[in-house]
């Protein structure tokens, strides 16, 4: 069709598409509002709306709730599916981990992309301080009370109410309050394994889980994992036939570090497979609330009919890091978890639990999460656009559908250990890929946290990191 015979909305769409192609509007940038385009072009609002719908259909722009329309970054090529060692391996923390942990403990700010946590200013500190004062006035005896080992009844009730959305609601008696998600995972491993046992894990796997395996004398069996859809169930099927695997740990919703989202049908198959083989599934769902779509993805626990899934999560990354409140629903292992919680830490501070319960009951948590999701979605996409522009050609990364982490696979010849040292020398931090494997894998990979707003200084640091990566590959001479 000739240009002069195109419908007016297509002409407007083509003009904007041309400006995107020429770089007038760059990836991640906000487009003029519908009203602005209408005024400039002197066309109807219906025409403008149809133009923007067409641009969305072409994959050139995206709508962000309460923010407007933005130029989409070109779809990146995702990293390859991992191909780990097929044999179980003992987990041994090496010097890189300790250097990384020292960096995280002593360094922070706008040039760090290391910590998997949102920026402090994104947490509802004012609301929580007010709630804390109210709880102290009404329940001043909480400071003199150890509390119940299994958790504050009102908090357990509020948590149970939230599981209605799964279509497989828990009762308050199914919930055990813990000191964050790490304690929940530790209790689960203690309940279902013995030293020397083999635990199947994702590849790559969050290094906090690897440290738990090491502390308990367990071996990790890495299962090939897709950066988009998560753990390969075909590979897990083969790995669990012999009976050697005693437990499986999975982060089905926006895994750390990949950001993968396991499809619902995969979760159903996973639960069924392990139930048939009597292999406990430990599910870490700490990132499940960080979805970018319209609905929260259900956890694998939603398909559990036999109590074989031990479900772990917390409120720390979402809104309450200082309160350290998490929880576990252990299914048929629940009574054992209760006994272990009693002997390990006895209880989670009741004052912290009471504040969390109030925050949930008053709707403050949900209001906060709606805003936080919008903010993190924007930060992820802005960071992704800079990475695509600044990092070496051939860098692969998956565009996550939730969470706030990016997993990068650099081209052949890259070494994220050496890049880590070079970046630290300039005050820039990230998480090297080898930390996410008990073996020697992921030497070309790194994790970036998008938890902080992409300020000008932060963008400059990210672009410098990309420059250091290009220089390592021989793409640049000098600094």
Q: List low-confidence stretches.
A: none
The helix-and-strand class reads alpha/beta
What sequence of helices (H) and strands (E) makes up the elements?
HHHEEEHHHEHEHEEHEHEEEHHHEEHEEH
Number of helices: 15
Give an account of the 3D structure:
This protein has about 475 residues and is of the alpha/beta class. The chain has 15 helices and 15 strands. The protein has helices at about 10-20, 35-40, 45-55, 95-105, 125-140, 155-160, 180-190, 205-215, 235-240, 265-275, 335-345, 350-360, 365-390, 415-425, 455-470, and strands spanning about 60-65, 70, 90, 175-180, 200-205, 220-225, 230, 245-250, 280-285, 310-315, 325-330, 395, 405-410, 430, 445-450. The strands form 3 sheets. Strands 3, 4, 5, 6, 7, 8, 9, 10 and 11 form a 9-stranded mixed β-sheet that branches. The protein has a 4-stranded antiparallel β-sheet with strand order 12-13-15-14, with helices on one face. A hairpin with a 3-residue loop joins β1 and β2. α13 packs across α15 (about 455-470). The termini are far apart. The model has no long low-confidence stretch (mean pLDDT about 90).
